[in-house]
């Protein structure tokens, strides 16, 4: 029933006509079709559904001396960005203000699609309720070095002599 069509049947199909199944009394030169045919019936009303992929948005978020890169679907909310930043930066969502939106301030429930954002975005986090911490490892090491005295050894090659100077960390070499 689903065997290859004869030439006249193929012409009818190309013209848009229905292809009748070959009858047993047909004088067609093609062999009778078997039950293991490689052909499948074609349903002209079958439509191919194309799924639209969600648009992805890139965010670069600055907070103090840190930068966080995020990629989210356009259907995400501003609150979802803040939740990710809470994990990445260790700043509670309740104390975080996310700034840099072209449309001004937005609420946590705002869907990103409604902001008509470009693919790449730059934002920054403000935390007015959290004082900057000076106890980070870099800052505390720098603070310690400013309070220490260093031994500065200067070698004078022509005179073949070394000079040892006590040097406070709060001074520059020029001083």
Q: Report the helical percentage.
A: 10-25%
Lateral arrangement of strands in the main beta sheet: 2-1-4-3
Secondary-structure class? alpha+beta
Uncertain stretches of 5 or more adjacent residues? 24-28
Report how far the terminal alpha carbons are from each other.
100 Å
What string, H for helix and E for strand, traces the elements in order? HEEHEEHEE
How would a textbook summarize the main sheet?
A: 4 strands, mixed
Radius of gyration: 38 Å
Strand segment count:
6
The fraction of residues in strands falls at 15-25%
Shape: elongated
Region (Disordered): 1-42
InterPro entries: Ubiquitin-like_dom, Ubiquitin-like_domsf
Protein name: FAS-associated factor 1
Domain Ubiquitin-like: 57-126
Q: What would you note in describing this structure?
A:
Residues 1-42 are annotated as: Disordered. It comes from Lates japonicus (Japanese lates). Residues 1-38 have a biased composition (Low complexity). InterPro entries: Ubiquitin-like_dom (IPR000626), Ubiquitin-like_domsf (IPR029071). Residues 57-126 form the Ubiquitin-like domain. The structure is a single chain. The chain is of the alpha+beta class. The protein contains three helices and six strands. The strands form two sheets. It has a four-stranded mixed β-sheet with strand order 2-1-4-3, with helices on one face. Strands 5-6 form a two-stranded antiparallel sheet. Strand 1 (56-63) and strand 2 form a beta hairpin. The longest helix has 12 residues, at 78-89. The relative contact order is 0.11. Mean pLDDT is 78; it is low at 24-28.
């Amino acid at each position: 029933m689903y065997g290859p069509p004869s030439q006249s049947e193929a012409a009818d199909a190309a013209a848009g006509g229905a292809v009748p199944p070959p009858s047993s009394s047909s004088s067609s030169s093609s062999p009778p079709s078997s039950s293991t045919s490689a052909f499948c019936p074609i349903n002209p009303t079958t439509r191919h559904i194309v799924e639209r992929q969600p648009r992805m948005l890139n965010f670069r978020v600055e907070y103090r001396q840190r930068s966080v890169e995020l990629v989210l679907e356009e259907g995400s909310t501003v609150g979802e960005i803040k939740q990710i930043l809470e994990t990445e930066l260790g700043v509670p969502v309740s104390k975080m203000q996310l700034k840099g939106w072209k449309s001004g301030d937005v609420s946590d429930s705002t869907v990103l699609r409604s902001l008509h954002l470009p693919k790449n975005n730059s934002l920054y986090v403000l935390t007015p309720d959290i004082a900057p911490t000076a106890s980070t490892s870099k800052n505390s090491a720098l603070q310690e070095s400013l309070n220490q005295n260093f031994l500065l050894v200067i070698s004078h090659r022509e005179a073949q002599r070394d000079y040892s100077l006590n040097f406070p960390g709060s001074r520059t070499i020029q001083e």
